[in-house]
Each structure stands twice: as C-alpha cells, then as structure tokens.
Amino acid sequence: MHCWKTINVKKQYGFDRLFMISALFGIAVFMASYIGLAIAYATPLSDQYFLYFILTLLAIYPLHKILHFLPMIGCHKSLKLMIRKHMKVCPAILLHINEPVSKFRFLLSLATPFLVLNTAIVALSLAMPEFSHYFAMLLAYHCALCLTDIIYLRNLARSPKYAFIEETETGFEILVPPVIS
After folding, report:
1. Which of 111, 82, 98 is nearest to 165 (CA)?
2. Is the predicted pLDDT of residue 179 greater than 80, yes or no?
3. I need a surface site. Which of 21, 38, 50, 160 has the fewest CB within 10 A?
4. Within 10 A of 170 (CB to CB), how many other CB atoms are there?
5. CA–CA dist 46, 66 (Å, integer)
6. pLDDT at residue 135 greater than cutoff 60
C-alpha cells in the first residue's frame, strides 16, 4: 500500500486555533439549541439536580472516548490507550491505532460519539424541557469536543473508497492498495 495523503489537523490548524474554533462552535450550538428549546417549550426552567448536571458534564469526555473505542473492538490488540496532561492540569485520553484499519471502520469510530451522545442529549432535552438549559450546555460542550472529529470526517470522506487509515507520528495516513492491472 502507498500513502495517498497525510492529515494532521492539529498541525494544520494549531492547538490555539482549534481551541478557539471549538469554543465558538460550542457557543453557537448553545445559542441555537437554547433559543430553539425556549421557543418550542414555555416550561419554566428548574435548577434542581445541578450536581447531576456537573457529574454528567464531567462524564461526557470519558464517554466520548469510550464511544470512539466501540467500533474498534475487533482490532483491540492494535489499540493503545494513553493519558496525557494538557496545560499541566487537564487530562487527555488518547487512543492510538498501531495497524491500518478500513476507512469505513475509522469513519464509524469518528462519528459514533457525535451521533450517540448528541442524539441522547437532544432526546432527553425534548423529554424533560424543564432542564433544557442543562441539556443545551451539555450539547454545546459535546459538539465543541467533536469539532476535530468533524474536521477529520470531512477530510476522510473525500478519500478513496477502499482506503485504509493508519495513525503515525505525522498524523493519519490514508493508505491505498496498489492497482492491479
């Protein structure tokens, strides 16, 4: 196989720029979801269960990473879990793939947290409109977390259909099998 393209979003955009875009995306999602829910439901808001909100807010990041892992269960021997600290305080959970995986499986791995958690948050906000402000904040936070995944999805969607994705130190390499004539 040969490398068709290498994608490294963190190198292309930089950590500060990604953080800023992610924060702005989260703010936009919060405003849209909060205003939409406020227009749809005239229910008075409740500040009850604030502790559960904080615990859920803290649990979203690990859940997000676990949901990335689920589509990769078949290749668990090639996965490596690492925990690093950003800015000497915030723990970051990293999953590294040691061998190439199919494009479909990798795209599914990128999209699973976005689809599952956001669907659950939106469903809960519709089921319990009195806590819609909590759910709007959770949705905004999770969408901000998903921004790099969305950027990778956009870049990988344009790659050849039968490609494989391999993670290296330089980023994600899109590998294409040789053409047999």
Report:
1. 98
2. no
3. 50
4. 11
5. 30
6. yes
Mean pLDDT confidence for 88-103: 77
Whether 181 is covered by a domain: the verdict is: no
CA angle in degrees (0–180, nearest 5) for 61-53-51: 120
Which residues are CB-neighbours of 25 under 8 A, at least 6 positions away?
Answer: 143, 144, 147
Structural domains in the chain (count) = 1
Residue 96 belongs to some domain of the structure: yes
Q: What is the DSSP string of 3-34?
A: EEEEE-HHHHH-HHHHHHHHHHHHHHHHHHHH
Domain that holds residue 23: 2-176
d(CA 111, CA 104): 10
**Is 153 part of a structural domain of the chain?**
yes
Please report the pLDDT score of residue 91 as a whole number: 73
Q: Which amino acid is at 167?
A: E
| Per-residue CA distances from 94 to 64, 68, 101, 176 (Å) | 11, 10, 17, 25
Contacts of 52 (CB under 8 A, 6+ apart): none
| CA trace torsion 157, 141, 80, 178 (10° rounding) | 10
Residue 71 in contact with residue 112, Cβ under 8 Å? yes
